[in-house]
Amino acid sequence: MTGPGRRSSTFTRLLRHGFTDASAAERLLDGAELSAVRDDPVLLEALGRTADPDLALRGLARLLEAQPGESARRELIDTVIAAKPLRDRLLGVLGASAALADHLARHPRDWEALVTYEPRDLHPGVEEFERGLAGADDPVSLRVAYRRCLLSIAARDVCGTIDLAETAAELADLATATLRSALGLARAAAPDDAALCRLAVIAMGKCGGHELNYVSDVDVIFVGEAVDGADEGKALRAATKLASHMMRICSETTVEGSIWPVDANLRPEGRNGPLVRTLSSHLAYYRRWAKTWEFQALLKARPVAGDLALGAEYVAAVEPLVWQAAERENFVADVQRMRRRVVENIPVAEVERELKLGPGGLRDVEFAVQLLQLVHGRADASLRSGTTLDALRALAAGGYVGRADAVQLDAAYRFLRSMEHRIQLHQLRRTHLVPEAEGDQRRLGRSLGLRADPVAELNREWKRHAAVVRRLHEKLFYRPLLDAVAQLAPGEARLSTAAARERLVALGYADPAAALRHLEALASGVTRKAAIQRTLLPVLLGWFADSADPDAGLLNFRKVSDALGKTPWYLRLLRDEGAAAENLARVLSAGRLAPDLLMRAPEAVALLGDGDGGGLAPRGRAHLEQEILAAVKRADGAVQAVTAARGVRRRELFRTAAADIVASYGTEAQPVEADQGALVDLVGGAVSDITAATLAGTLRAVVREGWGDTLPTRFAIIGMGRFGGHELGYGSDADVLFVHQPREGADEHEAGRAANAVVAEMRRLLQVPSADPPLLVDADLRPEGKSGPLVRTLNSYAAYYRRWSLGWESQALLRAEPVAGDEELGRRFVELIDPLRYPPDGLGDDAVREIRRLKARMESERMPRGADPKLHTKLGPGGLSDVEWTVQLLQLRYGAREAGLRTTRTRGALAAARDCGLLSREDAATLDEAWVLATRVRNAVMLVRGRAGDTFPSAPRELAAVGRYLGYGPGHVGDMLDDYRRTGRLARQVVDALFYGA
């Protein structure tokens, strides 16, 4: 044992050389194996250059201890001290990989594989690795030989002799040689099976792409054929046995561990399909059943083992199908949806540490590159590489990706893959998670050459590269489109016009020529406006492509930009407020209604921001009425006053539509609203409040214009139907009743003429053609319908209802609620009608039968000719009429005794009926779901088409837009219609039981 002073000096030197546990290192250096070289500066400096000096020293001590004798130990230590190449490689591996240190301890002479340093050893290929595995005659010896070859790759990697791409290529070549050896062992074990069939092993994924990790599943597909004269069925069974045995040889755990799992799940039908298929069977599947992601996977297909001629036939046969994949409907959306699904499946606790699958991870780069390859590779064979970095280089050379973007992505990908390699190399475990322990992060940082402050530098560089990937991976698809039209960087390879159109078609643009014109108008020039729009457009184009109508989104953005582009706050809003740009993109591409409302007054785009614009939350009736009445008071005459009221209505309709669209589509900041009923209530309540406030303002304006402050009669407007129920849709008329009561001392005839004049002028002013949408006021639910007077006194209503009222009128009055005008008169009207709509004794059998008869007649007479009844939201099975009549029958029968039923709102009455036991929770939920869905469809049709409708649109793009609003991705319109029919069918069964008593 050395003295304290000497020990202190050694201790300090060890710390200076990067050891974290200098005491343990001293003890190892004092041991018999290393005592002779404990003070050798060459050894300590070499250990200090490794990723983990403590780990390297422990591994070296174990390796020396495992040598078969003293002479072998002396040979090893002398070689380490004397030969720098071996010293760097051996200690580099021991400092980076505990697993390979374990291997060397079990096989102490394998260090000799690192001694030779011939030129051919610098970049071995499949042939060299096959020679390295040639002596393996069973699974155990194959594992030992595999690790010995892996040791040589790891040594060159950690010493920097080969870069990331070369390391990944060598790992793929070693995997190829290993698959060939494993298949050879399987064939040797079953020569009769081998004689019956031809079997080709096709590498997929990273192995196929010649960019394998240290530890990764090796993805394969098997192709089998019968040899001449053999029965095909027997040959395929034989090939399946060989393939299964080969997989077990590589995957099963032995005393030497396993090599890696061989995964054949990328085959047609996945794990449910046969392991081995003939070439014709593969082609039949790909031509008829394959999904987009399967062609994306085939980008990397490469024959590696078995019958290579058959493998080459397979690749040649599927290649044309791969390059036609971009022609598939919803191609880009399918690829992007698959990427999102991968991210969504990452456990929340791991997202931030996920190198491969998380946002800004390796998969983002790979997906972006593959997407561009599939779009442009059909016309440009130079892009058809299975290797990500080679493909990225080719894309940049061809102008398909900006050179600067490609350089940044290349650097980020190399750094992230290097991190992944070093993480896996440590324990030879398949993982993509950045370790949390500081010691692990220190080793990882040092292995990447970050020595000053390894942990801090590692995290800084990792976050920086991940941020680059996050920023560029989607813009990569869109930015070259701008470069193709803006022409701002001389000498830069640009996307050709044909390639730009090809890319726009893949994104879902129906008119790529028009889209390019819009892009040119938006992005060209050196103005501040053009510069900001060039920054925004790559992101906006991605959001437009995520809609059912990208063409409309881009055209509408150009219109808004033309209108507001010179307004400083507009550009600042889009650039600086995180939500505004995405909200605008969603609104502009979701259909006609919201953009039409916006174009009438583009300054309403300020509502889309998250700053002072007021946001998208509905403002409430009291607030709106206060604003409108204030505008009416300031106005010069009724026409100007009602114009102001209609302007507020238009703005608030836009606010409501925008909020609905953003919540239905979801954004980065706001996920899709899961409660569809909440969205229906939001729209119904907001539109009803807007309508009520508009009527209140119009009434005030008309009265002031004609009579000053006081009309000779009290006047109230009663909301009916959906208006009274707070359930108005975007395209709904305002169903109302008008009631008046002459003031004390006023002449009845004069009061009546005044009331009728008010109604006529209100209806006229609300429908005058202007930039604002008209508000249609419908009074057809009044006594005697269209034949009766538009306005009645309260006494006249009382006399009519007492003597002439029909059952349907009592039912209609269930939705009656005062919405504007004299509050006291409105309250008295409600008191008048309550006994009619909530009969004290309920309904008699005759009245119930009459309501049922009317409902059945309406279904048969009012269904439009040619309409599909099952898809009619109002009159179809389980539609609005079914649910509402069922709820209203319960209200008429039991409303007098159950206070909860005395509401004008359908969903509220349905919940009350459930709570008081008039129907089961299951039946209530079924009816509620059907009513909400039908209402959502009607809202969607209005948003998409700009006009009301009770059925799904027939135009494919409009139908897809309705589906997108309802949460159905591209290509799932059929699922939407099936779900609607199913929901309606289930609701109709409940209606039959509750309403018709079936």
Description:
The chain has 45 helices and 10 strands. It is mainly alpha-helical. Strands 1, 2, 3, 4 and 5 form a 5-stranded mixed β-sheet that branches. Strands 6, 7, 8, 9 and 10 form a 5-stranded mixed β-sheet that branches. It is elongated and about 130 Å long. It starts with a helix and ends with a helix.
Low-confidence stretches: 1-6
- Cα gyration radius (Å): 38 Å
How many β-strands, per DSSP?
10
Which class of secondary structure composition applies to the elements?
Answer: mainly alpha
The total of helices stands at 45
Largest sheet: 5 strands, mixed
Work out the strand percent.
5-15%
Mean pLDDT, as a whole number? 91
SSE topology sketch:
Elements: H1 4-16, H2 22-29, H3 41-48, H4 53-66, H5 70-82, H6 84-96, H7 98-106, H8 119-122, H9 126-133, H10 139-158, H11 164-189, H12 191-196, E1 197-203, H13 205-208, E2 218-226, H14 232-251, E3 262-263, E4 276-277, H15 279-288, H16 292-298, E5 302-306, H17 308-322, H18 331-344, H19 362-376, H20 388-397, H21 403-427, H22 438-447, H23 454-472, H24 475-486, H25 497-506, H26 512-523, H27 528-545, H28 550-564, H29 568-576, H30 578-588, H31 593-600, H32 621-634, H33 638-665, H34 676-707, E6 713-719, H35 721-724, E7 734-742, H36 748-767, E8 777-778, E9 791-793, H37 794-803, H38 807-812, E10 817-821, H39 823-837, H40 845-862, H41 880-894, H42 906-915, H43 921-945, H44 956-965, H45 973-994
The gist of it:
It is built from 45 helices and 10 strands. The protein is mainly alpha-helical and 998 residues long.
